[in-house]
Amino acid sequence: MAKNTQDLPIIQCTCGYDLLLLPDTQVMGKAIEKHVLEHKNKYGLTQKQAESLEDYLIAQAFTLAEKKSK
After folding, report:
1. Could you tell me the residue ranges of all domains in the chain?
2. Distance CA 24, CA 40 (A)
3. pLDDT values of the chain reduced to their tens digit, one per residue, 70 residues
4. Which of 49, 53, 55, 70 is the most exposed place for a label (fewest CB within 10 A)?
């Protein structure tokens, strides 16, 4: 059964994986770090590529948090 997630604050990775935006920044940071580590291990990303992906996800999180706070 598919669930309607259109109203949930979700950021999306380049791989298509959805991460729910969490109000706890430390937990959200850990979730992003864990996902980036999975990419690093699975796809052999360099440190620079991993940092770029992490920055991309963090930027989305900040943008979405800003929109939700308005």
Report:
1. 32-60
2. 24
3. 446 666 789 999 999 999 999 989 999 999 999 999 999 999 999 999 999 999 999 999 999 999 877 7
4. 70
Q: Hey, is 45 helix, strand or coil?
A: coil
Extract the tokens encoding 64: 């979405």
Find out whether 54 and 32 touch, Cβ atoms under 8 Å. Answer: yes
Could you give the C-alpha distances from 36 to 2, 19, 32, 65, 70, in angstroms and in order? 26, 12, 6, 20, 29
Rounded Cα–Cα distance for residues 67 and 70 (Å)? 6
pTM of the full predicted structure?
0.86
> Rounded to an integer, what distance in angstroms lies between the CA atom of residue 61 and that of residue 4?
20
> How far is Cα 37 from Cα 31, in angstroms, rounded to an integer?
10
